[in-house]
Amino acid sequence: MPIMTVTTRHTVIVDIGFRIVLVFAMALPMLILYAISTLGPLLGRDLRFEPALLGYLVMSSFGLAAILSLWAGAIVDRMGSRYALMVLFSAIALAFTLMATVKDFYGLVAATAICGIAQALANPVTNLLIAQQVPPDKKAKVVGLKQSGVQVAALFAGLILPGIAFQYGWRAALGMIVPVALLFAISTPLFTPGKRGGTVKGFMFSLPNSLLLRLMGIQFCVGISLSAFVTFLPSFAIRQGMPLSLAGTLIAVFGVMGIISRIVLTPIGAKLKDESLLLLMLITIAACTIAVTMLASPETHWRLWIGAIGMGLTAVGTNAIAMSMLIRDPAFGPVTAASGFISVAFFGGFALGPPLYGALSSYSEGSLGWSTLIGVLLCACIMSLALASTRRSKTQASTMMVCAAERTKAADI
C-alpha cells in the first residue's frame, strides 16, 4: 500500500510537471512580443529609435519563426520531443542574454530574431507531446492549458516587467528571463520521454490540403491583427494620456482574458461537430472590439480596457481552437506537419502586422492602421465560412461513401 501511494504521488508530480513544461514552452517564446510591447517606450528612449520601429523587432522574431516552421514538424520528429524542448529553452536563454546586453537597435533586432527558433518549435513539440502522452478525453483541455501559456507571458509582461524596469532598468528585466529558461532546459528530461526521434528520413514536406489551407488563411489574418494590436496598444494608450504603468496593465488584463479564453473555449470547441463557426463568431467579435478601441480618447479610456478584454477573450482563443482541431481531426494531416503549417501562417501574420500598422498609422495618426486590422479580420470571417463549408462537404461525401459501401455489402450477401 505505501509503495502504491508513493508511485501514485510520483505519477501526479510528473503529470503536473509535464503540464508546467508545456505551459512554459509556449510562454517563454512568446514573451518577446509582450516584452517589446510593454518595454517599448523605454527601449526606444535608451537606444534612440522611433516607436514605429518596434514593429520590426516583432517582424525579425516572427519572420524567422514563420520560415523555420516549414520544417519545424520534421525537425521535431527527427530530434524527438525531449531534445527539441531543450533546444527551445536554450534558444530563449541565448536570445534574452543578448537582448539584455545590446548597444543599439540593430543588435536588438538580431537578438530578438533568435526567439524565432523557439517560436517555430513550440507548437509542433507541445502538440506531439500531447498526442503521445495525453488520453483522448483530456487532449482538448491540455491543449487549452498549454496554449494559455502564451497569455501567461502577457500577464507577466504587463504586471512584472514594467516594475522591474522602472526600478532596475529594462536590461535587468529582460535578463531575469535567462535563468528561468536555463532551469527548464535542464529539468525538461525529468518530465518528457527519453525516446529519440529519427522516424523522418528527410526534411521534405508535402503541401497542405484544402482544409489546412483555409485554416492557415484564418490564422494568418488573426496573426496580423493580434500582433499589431498587442504591440501598439500601450503606445496608443500613452498617446491618449494613460500613464506607462497603467498602459502595461492593459497587456496584463489582455493576458488574463486570454488565459480564460483558451482554457474555457478549447474544450467547448472540441464538443462541437465543427469548430469553424465558433472561429467565425470569435473573429467577428474581435473586429467589433478593435472598432471600439480605435475611438478611444483622453476622456474615454474605458474603450482601451474594452479592447484589451475583448481581444483577449476572442482573437486569442482562436489559435488554441485551431491547434485542437489539428489534434482531433486527422483530415488536416499529420499533427507535427500540420502544426508547422499553422505556425507558418500565424507567425507570418505576426511578422507582418506590426510594421504594416506602423507604416499605415504614420499617415493617419492610427485610424488607417486600426481600420486595416478590422478589414483583415473580416477576411478571416469569410475564410471561416469557407472552412465550415469545406468540412461539411467532406463529411457528407464520407457519409455517402460509407452508405454506398454498406449497400454493396448488403447486395453481395
From TrEMBL:
<dbReference type="InterPro" id="IPR020846">
    <property type="entry name" value="MFS_dom"/>
</dbReference>
<keyword id="KW-0812">Transmembrane</keyword>
<feature type="transmembrane region" description="Helical">
    <location>
        <begin position="56"/>
        <end position="76"/>
    </location>
</feature>
<feature type="transmembrane region" description="Helical">
    <location>
        <begin position="302"/>
        <end position="323"/>
    </location>
</feature>
<feature type="transmembrane region" description="Helical">
    <location>
        <begin position="211"/>
        <end position="238"/>
    </location>
</feature>
<dbReference type="InterPro" id="IPR011701">
    <property type="entry name" value="MFS"/>
</dbReference>
<keyword id="KW-0472">Membrane</keyword>
<keyword id="KW-1133">Transmembrane helix</keyword>
<dbReference type="Pfam" id="PF07690">
    <property type="entry name" value="MFS_1"/>
</dbReference>
<feature type="transmembrane region" description="Helical">
    <location>
        <begin position="335"/>
        <end position="356"/>
    </location>
</feature>
<feature type="transmembrane region" description="Helical">
    <location>
        <begin position="368"/>
        <end position="388"/>
    </location>
</feature>
<protein>
    <submittedName>
        <fullName>Predicted arabinose efflux permease, MFS family</fullName>
    </submittedName>
</protein>
<feature type="transmembrane region" description="Helical">
    <location>
        <begin position="172"/>
        <end position="191"/>
    </location>
</feature>
<feature type="transmembrane region" description="Helical">
    <location>
        <begin position="83"/>
        <end position="102"/>
    </location>
</feature>
<dbReference type="InterPro" id="IPR036259">
    <property type="entry name" value="MFS_trans_sf"/>
</dbReference>
<feature type="transmembrane region" description="Helical">
    <location>
        <begin position="12"/>
        <end position="36"/>
    </location>
</feature>
<keyword id="KW-1003">Cell membrane</keyword>
<feature type="transmembrane region" description="Helical">
    <location>
        <begin position="244"/>
        <end position="265"/>
    </location>
</feature>
<feature type="transmembrane region" description="Helical">
    <location>
        <begin position="277"/>
        <end position="296"/>
    </location>
</feature>
<feature type="domain" description="Major facilitator superfamily (MFS) profile">
    <location>
        <begin position="18"/>
        <end position="392"/>
    </location>
</feature>
<feature type="transmembrane region" description="Helical">
    <location>
        <begin position="150"/>
        <end position="166"/>
    </location>
</feature>
<dbReference type="InterPro" id="IPR050189">
    <property type="entry name" value="MFS_Efflux_Transporters"/>
</dbReference>
<feature type="transmembrane region" description="Helical">
    <location>
        <begin position="108"/>
        <end position="130"/>
    </location>
</feature>
